Amino acid sequence: MRAVVQRVSEAAVDIDGTQRSHINRGLLVLLGITAGDTEEDLEWLCGKIVRLRIFADPEGQMNLDLQQVHGDILLVSQFTLHASTVKGNRPSYIRAARPEEATPLYLRAKQRLGELLGRPVRSGEFGANMQVSLVNDGPVTIIIDSQLRE
C-alpha cells in the first residue's frame, strides 16, 4: 500500500463537473493499493498518516500532527501510484490490486483514518475519473509505502 501525502491549505475532488468533496487545512492522501496488501498494511499506513508531524508549531517547526491542528483528510484512490516504467514508455499497472480486492481496502482505509482522526474523512469515488485540485502548503509532500516501512 502506497500513499502520497500532501499538506494542503485546501483541496477538492470534482466528478463530472460537480464538487464531490472539499477540505481546508489538512492532508490530501492519494492511496494506491497493491495486490496482496493486508489489513496489517492498512493499519500501519493509516496510523502513520494520522500521526505525521508535518504542521508548523508556533516557532515554525514541523512538530504538530493532523489532530493538533484540527486538520481534515481528503482520501483519493490512485492505482497509478504502482506504475512500473522499467520496460518501455507505457507504464504497467500489473502490481496494482484489481478493483474487487482494492475497493474494500480503500473503504476500510477511509473508515480507519476517520476512527484515528476522530471525525469523518472526505473522499473521492473509487474508480471514478476525478479532477483533484489542491493548494500544497509548503510544499510538503511525503511518500509512504507499507512494504518499505521507512
Write a structural description:
With 150 residues, the protein is α/β, with parallel strands linked by helices. The protein has a single domain, classed as D-tyrosyl-tRNA(Tyr) deacylase (D-tyrosyl-trna(Tyr) Deacylase, Chain: A, 3-Layer(bba) Sandwich), CATH 3.50.80. The protein contains two helices and eight strands. The strands form two sheets. Strands 1, 2, 3, 6, 7 and 8 form a six-stranded mixed beta sheet that branches. Strands 4-5 form a two-stranded antiparallel sheet. A hairpin with a 2-residue loop joins strand 1 (2-15) and strand 2 (18-23). Helix 1 (39-51) runs parallel beside helix 2. It is globular and about 45 Å long. The model has no long low-confidence stretch (mean pLDDT 94).
Unreliable stretches: none
Name the CATH superfamily assignment.
Answer: D-tyrosyl-tRNA(Tyr) deacylase
Please name the CATH architecture: 3-Layer(bba) Sandwich
Care to count the β-strands?
8
Average of the residue pLDDT scores: 94
Helix content: 10-25%
CATH topology name, in short, is D-tyrosyl-trna(Tyr) Deacylase, Chain: A
Radius of gyration: 15 Å
- SSE run: EEEHEEEHEE
Distance between the termini: 13 Å
Shape: globular
| Major sheet characteristics | 6 strands, mixed
